[in-house]
Amino acid sequence: MLGSPIAHSLSPVLHRAAYDVLGLDWRYDAIEMDEARLPRFLAALDGTWRGLSLTMPLKRAVLPFVDDVSPTVTAVGAANTVLLGDDGKRRAENTDVPGMAAVLGEAGVSRGDAVVVLGGGATAAATVAALAQLGCDCEVVLRSPRRVEELTAVAQRSGGALRLRGWDDVSGALAAPVVVVTLPGDAAAALSPGLPDTVGLLVDVTYHPWPTSLARAWAQRGGEVVGGLELLVQQAALQVALMTGRDVAVDVLRAAGRRAPDESAV
User: Fold this and answer.
1) Which pLDDT band, with edges at 50, 70 and 90, does 217 fall under?
2) Domain spans in the chain, listed from the N-terminal domain onward
3) Is the Cβ–Cβ distance between 109 and 76 less than 8 Å?
4) Which of 99, 103, 160 is nearest to 129 (CA)?
5) Which of 30, 52, 59, 179 is catalytic?
C-alpha cells in the first residue's frame, strides 16, 4: 500500500488476513510514498513484486508510469491498483468502482434511485462511475468548481449523467434518499447541525476516525449509516483476486477489519 499519509491504513490487516486464509506466504506492507518519490520506487521493483495498492495522492499520479490501463481506469482517470506481470509490465486497475457498486447494492440502492455525492476527488469519481453502472440518478455537490468538467466526463465515459450544485447549497442536498460522502476524515463535520429532520441512507467512505461527526449525527436522526470499512473490504477483496488469482470471502476481510484496534491502527 502506497500513499501519504499511510500510518493508519487498514489495508495491510485485510490483505494479510486474506493471505492467511489462502495459505499464501506473501507480504503486504504500508509504505509512505508521495508523488515525488513514486517514479524511483516503481523503477526499483523486481520480480518478487505482484501488485501495489494506491491511495491518495497517488491514484492519478501513477498513470504516466504504467504500461496499460483497464477500461474502468480510463473512465475515472484514477487507479487504486497496479498489477506487476512476469513480463515486467505494469497494468493499472480500479477496484474502487466495483467496490462502491457492491456497497451501494448491498445497502439496497438500485436503478432509478436518487443519490447525492459530496466531494470531487478520485473517490467521488469512482462513486459517479459506480452509480452510472447501477443506473442511479446522480447529483454531485462540489467545493471546487475545477472538478466540474472532470466529473462530467467521468459520468459520460461510464454511460451515465449527473447534475452539479455548489457547496453553498449543500444543506438542501442532504435531504436526498441516499448521500455518499467522499470527503476525507471529518471534513463534513460542519454539516452535522444542519441535517434535515428526516434523513435516509448515508454512505461515508471514512473509516478513521469512525464514526465521523456527520455519521454520528445522522444516526441520531434515525438514518441508516454505512461506514468506510465496507468500501475498504469490498475493493480489497477484488484486489486480492487480481493479485493472487484466487478469491477470498469479503466476510473474512470484514472480520479482520473489525478486530483491528480502533478500525485504524496497523
Assistant:
1) very high
2) 2-94+230-263, 97-226
3) no
4) 160
5) 59
